[in-house]
Fold these 3 entries.
Entry 1:
Amino acid sequence: MMKKNGFSRCAEMYIGRLRKEGRYSTAHVYENALLSFRGFCGTPTVSFGQVTREHLRCYGQYLYSSGLKPNTVSTYMRMLRSIYNRGVELGSAPYVHGLFRDVYTGVDIRQKRALPVSELRRLLYEDPKTDCLRRTQSIAALMFQFCGMSFADLAHLEKSALDCNVIRYNRIKTRTPMSVEVLDTAKEMMNQLRNSQSSRPGCPDYLFSILSGDKKRKDEGAYREYQSALRRFNNNLKDLARTLHLQSPVTSYTLRHSWATTAKYRGVSIEMISESLGHKSIKTTQIYLKGFELKERTEVNKGNLSYVRNCCVGRNKSVKF
């Protein structure tokens, strides 16, 4: 007989394991999924018996009616599926063929939007008039000039990553080794954002003053500090977009997607774009990712920057980096 709190207990045990491993971001996603499903069920705990095909279908409709986007719905469903599968492996839940067949567990790539090049140019080059927004603009510009580097990777760069004008690091998300050459146009912004504090024993010595560096890498406090920095950056990006009268929504991901879209529009191969972004594979086409030299990637990066900088240059010839 299945326990009344079996599903909740299985989820909590796995969340606890993730936290012990320092995987706080993943644990947080599972916690949100469990909290959401528990709220839908209207019970303090959830049993495996409550996870039925019909109940899941109704839950999906509930999420959509609450205004959640397809990718968020998919994330919640995949978390629930993962927990259920763990229950099956432990012998706590019966195997049900096609249990999640009627709910969305894919990835809606249409939600990801790049900025039109004219708006991208304004975002990166037009003076927002305040120091706070100029700092936000500098961070955004570095993300773009570092081949669409993610905010997480930029924020966690350490001083040791910079070696003879080349930044070498492992991606936070995939641990993929990466290298990007620092363009001349990025050096002044790097100096403005550079962390001048001395490192603390056992703590990361960050290159930029985005994170404090006073917490050990695996501490939950370090994860919470990053989440606060990300929220602050996204809020400041919204203010920057509003100040510059942009019509398109802007988030930390927008810079990364805009870099990739700009490169694609210029005719750069998908293989090169994928490697420059640090993707492990191209799922939609299964294209083999062949290697490219740093010099080749640098030329692509320079071309992207030049393309955006010179877009509609006749409208405002005084704009410079």
Entry 2:
Amino acid sequence: MPGLLHGPRLGILVWRARPEASSHRSFGAFTLFSAIWILGVGLFYSGGNLVFWATTAFAGASLVPAAFLAFVRYYPTPTKWLGPRVLQLCFALGVCFAIVSLTTKLIVKDALTTDAGPIRQTGSLYPLFAVYFLLSWLAALIVLLSKWSRSKGSARIQLLYLALGFVVSTSGGIVANLVLPIVSGITAYN
């Protein structure tokens, strides 16, 4: 997993370029939480200490949408449409889900090895986690599209590329990790 360190390095590089800028801080947080999620998923599939790595992955994933929503609010210019209270609520929910994931069996009940590979069994709060995650990502997409529709020039192109990257990179993961397990109970495609 040598490539895993590139995300946090990029986040640190962007943050250090302008630590006072909210867009830089939120991008740094987004890359850090994404790296925790990726590390948890990668080590979950390595076969050792399944429950620990599954809960670690969910703890990181709990904060990814809040950090991305913050980044979208501030990049390339801040929007007043999405107020700080919404971000505070989103981060508070993310922190709660991260703590619950790490300390209880309410999000990840168990993890075991099958012939198809490791699978996780979700707990009773998993559907609520999925709703939080999906609503946060949907809010980020709405903010992105709203900013894109009102922007011009290079900002419009930057937002278009960000939106395309956002949709392409997250669609499969959201379907395989959130929607499919809720609809069918299948977690083998994570």
Entry 3:
Amino acid sequence: MKAICEHDGIQIDPHNLEEIAKNGAGSMRDAQSLLDQVIAFCGKEIDPGAVESVLGIVGQNALATFIDCVAQRDAAGLLEQVSEVIAHGKDLGYFCRDLIEYLRNLMLVKVAGNAESLLSGQTANLDTLKTQAAAFQPDEPQQLFQVVSKAEVEMKRSSLPQLVFAMAFLC
């Protein structure tokens, strides 16, 4: 995709290309289709927030804020975050997927001495992850990972996925 962008004169940062590739779920054709959608929406200069808008995904800041609310056991803040995700037209399924990845990164920072090398280029929010990791007991990120994974499965079967997601974190 990077070669395509260079060939066509599309300006896009590597993080956005990574997000597009991740949302392509292993299919180059799907990733190219998503890239085409982003280009159709933005033109030749793709700013960081545009990929999030077009693909319906949340950014790292929203994930960090959500985890801060979890760490502070701020139920009102959690509900507000869920409402904000929905109000901005984001897909809760994508939010779960990205939250699972975020929790994995949080766990790596919590338990690994060399987290930078394990995060494979995702070091933009490393300082935030380190601060958040300090707020959790060693087993809590793993427990949260299980909660989100279970909520993701249950959301797919529910007619009220927003409630399933919110309730998973209020306990």
